[in-house]
Amino acid sequence: QVQLVESGGGLVQAGGSLRLSCAASGRTFSTPSMGWFRQAPGKEREFVTAINWSGGTTAYDDSVKGRFTISRDNAKNTLWLQMTNLKPEDTAVYYCAFRKYAPVVGPPPRAPSGYDYWGQGTQVTVSS
Length: 128
Prior knowledge:
The protein is an all-beta fold. Helices cover 0% and strands 50% of the residues. The protein has no helices and eleven strands. It is globular.
């Protein structure tokens, strides 16, 4: 089992910044993928960004490219999401996700079904 705990959400004005963190604990895997998804009210959970933990290959949804940055701290088993120039349409619950084994080749998966463990989510609200 892997436990994921997100933090860092909150209320911010449009154009502002937030940094989310996701602390992973429990069973360790040497080559996982980790990612961020979000879900707005009445909408399906959607991909935001992800990273292959070992090689560092990343993937971003076009809607956040250039504004959001994913990173990880290997020593602390922590995943980060730096969000800048936030827009009202970024408002959602943000979830951290963990896949036990990254793809042998290529970027991390974008489908929620590609991940094995999920955090409880943290609310991000962007006011206009």
